[in-house]
Amino acid sequence: MIYPQTILTVADNTGAKKVMCIRILGGNKKYAEIGDTIIAVVKEAIPNMPIKRSDVIKAIVVRTKKTIRRQDGMYIRFDDNAAVIVNTENNPRGTRVFGPVAREIRDKNFSKIVSLAPEVL
After folding, report:
1. Beta-bridge partners for 42
2. How many CB atoms within 10 Å of residue 18?
3. How far apart are CA 98 and CA 118, in angstroms?
4. Whole-number Cα distances in Å, 69 to 72, 102, 105
5. What distance in Å separates the CA atoms of residue 55 and residue 64, rounded to the nearest whole number?
């Protein structure tokens, strides 16, 4: 459950380290779940990288601490809230994705993020 003002770690190599959600896209949603698109502002970034601090970006939520239930009855949760920064065509801006991502990302047709991820849970 990613609400506005929630701080997320960035799971790619774009240069941003932490982002803060400022809006959830896709209808009148109060919170974002895995696979949802958010608008975020960069709060912490590595110097000399393409994405700077205070840049407003679009991101896809790939991990949440909130437990999610799958259709087969399995429950899954992660250690952190994480997002991958994407461009306007929903392709990742970075060339690597760090850490596992949920299978729900593939179901929502973000196959490029899934292909870059080291592990899909």
Report:
1. 19
2. 14
3. 7
4. 8, 12, 14
5. 23
Residue with tokens 């239930």: 69
Q: Are 105 and 35 spatial neighbours (Cβ–Cβ below 8 Å)?
A: yes
Per-residue pLDDT of the chain (121 residues; tens, 9 = 90+): 999 999 999 999 999 999 999 999 998 999 999 999 999 999 999 999 999 999 999 999 999 999 999 999 999 999 999 999 999 999 999 999 999 999 999 999 999 999 999 999 9
Report the predicted TM-score, pTM, of the whole model to 2 decimal places.
0.92
Cβ 43 vs Cβ 20: under 8 Å:
yes
Residue type, 49: M
The string of DSSP codes covering 23-38 is EE-SSS-SSB-TT-EE
